[in-house]
Amino acid sequence: MFGSSLDSSQLYDAIYQTLYMVTVSLVIGALIGIPLGILLVITRKNGIWPNAFIYHVLNPVINIFRSVPFIILLIAIVPFTKMIVGTSIGTSAAIVPLTVYVAPYIARLVENSLLEVNSGVIEAAHSMGASPFQIIRHFLLPEALGSLILALTTSIIGLIGATAMAGAVGGGGIGDLALAYGYQRFDTIVIVITVVILVIMVQLIQSLGNVLSKIVRRS
């Protein structure tokens, strides 16, 4: 391809592996991170369900996981990865650290999005006798939906970058391709191709997120 040792099938496989890792880890990470973000908001001192114990346990734990660089996290949880999928190498194995990486990241973004909701909306819900669950379901989440879409967009872009790093330890995907063919074989063309693909992915996802967020906020 373009005078490189790389052929089209390898490139397509790498793109598929990247999309697979991003999609699966995002879904699992969101299922964990969104509830955690909601808990951080509602259990804080002035939240709709104050609980100092839950908040003071969750807050530092999320901070700890968020403070660890992904490449270090990738290596640090190798035993956990092996316990879950039976191996620490390959595309499926990379999903475990990717999920551990993105879940607390999503939790913080969700927390920030929910905290942007006008307190008057919550007060109005309280005055109507809504329960905490009803406030979350019918007031808090709908009001923050536009911001939540942007938060998930940011999470996806962060995951794309993380999948590229996962290639350094045999995680597969575009990062693995860039390392195996571009860096180790000194093939500049492969490096350029992989960078262009990653940039296009990020631009498309960010544009889609921006459009969806504007649509939601206008409705």
Question: How would you describe what is shown here?
Answer:
It is found in: Cell membrane. One of its GO terms (cellular component) is plasma membrane. Residues 15-206 form the ABC transmembrane type-1 domain. With 219 residues, the chain is mainly α. It has helices at residues 8-42, 52-67, 70-76, 78-85, 91-115, 119-127, 132-166, 173-183, 188-218. Helix 4 (78-85) packs across helix 5 (91-115). The longest helix has 35 residues, at 8-42. The termini are far apart.
Number of helices: 9
Beta percentage is under 5%
**Number of DSSP-assigned strands:** 0
Secondary-structure element series? HHHHHHHHH
What structural class should be given to the helix and strand makeup?
mainly alpha
- Shape, please? elongated
Radius of gyration: 20 Å
- Share of helix, binned: over 70%
- Give the quaternary arrangement of the chains: single chain
- Which spans of ≥5 residues are poorly predicted at pLDDT below 50? none
Could you give a short description of this structure?
This protein has 9 helices and no strands. The chain is an all-alpha fold and 219 residues long.
Task: Give descriptors for this structure.
elongated, 219 residues, 9 helices, mainly alpha
How are the SSEs ordered, and which strands pair?
Elements (H helix, E strand, L loop, with lengths): L7 H35 L9 H16 L2 H7 L1 H8 L5 H25 L3 H9 L4 H35 L6 H11 L4 H31 L1
Helix pairs in contact: 1-5, 1-7, 1-8, 2-5, 4-5, 5-7, 6-7, 7-8, 7-9, 8-9
InterPro entries: AA_ABC_Transporter_Permease (IPR051322), MetI-like (IPR000515), MetI-like_sf (IPR035906)
Protein name: ABC transporter permease
Membrane topology: Multi-pass membrane protein
